[in-house]
């Protein structure tokens, strides 16, 4: 299997796993939804889970991979405020939890770059 195909399928697997997690354990995701968003937090949790599952399916299929991977990069940028909210909310938690919340912030950069690389067929950034 070519490296670009393997990378795309790994990204699809990550998205699918995260998407399923929104339905299996929604409370942990509810807590990361910024308070400024209108409506119920659970609605946002489920909507983002559906989005991740749809993106996973799109990235897994070669015919839709480029558009889905670009949408995935945009999604990763769009959920960054939830990661910031989590870091703020968890600042008084035990050190390992606080460290995990803070570590998620710079993790968005490689995720965005990975999705862009998949969109470009593994040929770096454009």
From TrEMBL:
It is a multi-pass membrane protein. The chain crosses the membrane at residues 67-88. Keywords: Membrane, Transmembrane, Transmembrane helix. It is found in: Membrane. Pfam families: MauE. Its main location: membrane. Residues 8-79 form the Methylamine utilisation protein MauE domain. PANTHER family: DOXX FAMILY MEMBRANE PROTEIN, MEMBRANE PROTEIN-RELATED. This is Methylamine utilisation protein MauE domain-containing protein.
